[in-house]
Amino acid sequence: MFIGLDAGRAVLVGSAPANLDRDVRTYDVSQSGQTLTGQSTVQIVGRAAYENAYSINSVLAGAPEAVETPLVKPEEITAFEAGYRAQVGKFTIDLSGYYNKYSSFLANTAVAVPFYGEAGDGGLSLLALQNGDYKVYQTYTNSDVDINSYGGTLGVDTKVGNFDLGVNYTFAELDIDRGLYPDLRTNFNTPKHKVKAHFGNTALFKNFGFNVNYRWSDSYFWEASFADGDIPAYTVLDAQINYAVPSIKSVFKAGGSNILGDEYFTAIGTGNIGSIYYLSWTINP
Q1: Cα distance between residue 196 and residue 199, in whole Å
Q2: Which run of H or of E encompasses 32?
Q3: pLDDT in tens, 247-276
Q4: Are the C-beta atoms of residues 13 and 19 closer than 8 Å to each other?
Q5: Does position 181 have pLDDT exceeding 80, yes or no?
Q6: Which residues of 92-112 are buried (b: 16+ CB within 10 A; e: fewer)?
Q7: How far is CA 246 from CA 35, 58, 204, 243, in A?
Q8: In a 3-state reduction of DSSP, which class is residue 15?
C-alpha cells in the first residue's frame, strides 16, 4: 500500500491514496526529448503510474494502449473445501480438495509512464515512447476478471512388515486466460504437481533404523517484482540412519539431504541448494 521502491526492472508504487504523490523521481530525457520539451530532466510522481501510463505489453508490441489503473480494494474469495480420511485395511488414506473463486483478485500490472505528454494524446506521449523516454512502473490493483484456483492432495500411508511406506501427491492450478490479460501479474508461484514419498524402518535390526525421503516438484513460472523466470523441475533424495546405544543412553545419526547432489532452486533470485551431510550424537540422560 505504501511502497515506493525502484526494483530495477520497475518502480513499485503502492496504491494507498496518501502514497500516490509521495514517490517523486527525477529522470534524464534523451536528446530528442530535450529538443521537444526544452528540458534535460523531468520529475515523475507515483500517481502517474495509475493515471498517465500505457500498458507495457502494448508498448512492447508496438501498439501503445493508454490505461488507467484503479486503486486497490479488498479482495473477496468464496472457498469450497472437502476432505476425507479413512483406514482401509493396512492403508491410511487422506484425501482433500478445494476450489476458490476470487472477486477483485489482488494483482500487479506493469505500465510505461511517458516522461512528457499525456497518455492517449496521440502525439507527444507517443514520441516519448519512441524515444525511450519512459519508465516502467508496477502498480497494485485488482483484477476485473474472474480468477479461480483449485487443487487437492492425496496421501496414502501403510506398513509392510516393519517397514513404513507413504506417498503424497499435491495438485494446484490457477484458472486464468493469460493470453487475454497479459499485463496481469498474479504471483501464483506454485508448481502444478508435487510428489513426496518416504520409506523407513525404525527397527531394521536391534537398535538400528533408517529413513529415506523422496521429493519431486514440477517446473513452474515464478513472478517477482525484480525478476521473472522458470523454475525447473527437481528431484531431491534425503536419507538417514540411526543407531541407539542404550548402555550410554545415546543415539548416533548419520544422514544427508539432497544426497543425489543435483543442485536446484525454488525461487528466482535465490542461490542454488546443494547437499548437506551430517553426523550427530544425542544423549538422553
Answers
A1: 11
A2: helix 31-37
A3: 999 999 999 999 999 999 999 988 999 999
A4: yes
A5: no
A6: eeeeeeeebbbebbbbbbbbb
A7: 86, 71, 16, 10
A8: coil
Q: Which amino acid is at 182?
A: P
User: Is the Cβ–Cβ distance between 239 and 255 less than 8 Å?
Assistant: yes
The percentage of residues in the chain with a pLDDT greater than 90, rounded to a whole number, is: 78
- The C-alpha cell at 263 is 543442485
Average pLDDT, the chain: 93
Helix H or strand E encompassing 64: none
Q: Which phi and psi (to 5°) does residue 231 adopt?
A: -100, 110
Distance from C-alpha of 185 to C-alpha of 55, rounded to nearest angstrom: 13
- State the distance between the two ends of the chain, measured CA to CA, in whole angstroms: 53
Given a contact cutoff of 8 angstroms between Cβ atoms, the answer to whether 156 and 167 are in contact is yes
Please, which residues bridge with residue 254 across strands? Answer: 241, 279
Query: Which residues are within 8 A (CB) of 63 and not within 5 positions of it... i.e. 6 or more apart?
Result: none
Task: Give the C-alpha separation, 110 to 72, whole Å.
Answer: 15
Q: Cell triple for residue 189?
A: 508461484
Q: Are 169 and 194 in contact (CB under 8 A)?
A: yes
Beta-carbon-side half-sphere exposure of residue 155 (alpha carbons within 13 Å): 17
Does the pTM surpass 0.90? The reply is: no
For 101-159, write each residue's pLDDT tens digit: 999 898 899 999 999 999 999 889 999 999 999 999 999 999 888 899 999 999 999 99
Q: Give the three-class secondary structure for 99.
A: strand
Distance between CA atoms of residues 32 and 127, nearest Å = 9
- Does 227 or 275 have the greater pLDDT score? 275
- R_g of the chain, CA atoms, integer Å: 27
Instruction: Give every CB contact of residue 222 below 8 A, 6+ residues apart in sequence.
Output: 189, 228, 229, 230, 231, 267, 268
Tell me the β-bridge partners of 165: 158, 199
Alpha-carbon distance of 57 to 179, in angstroms, equals 11
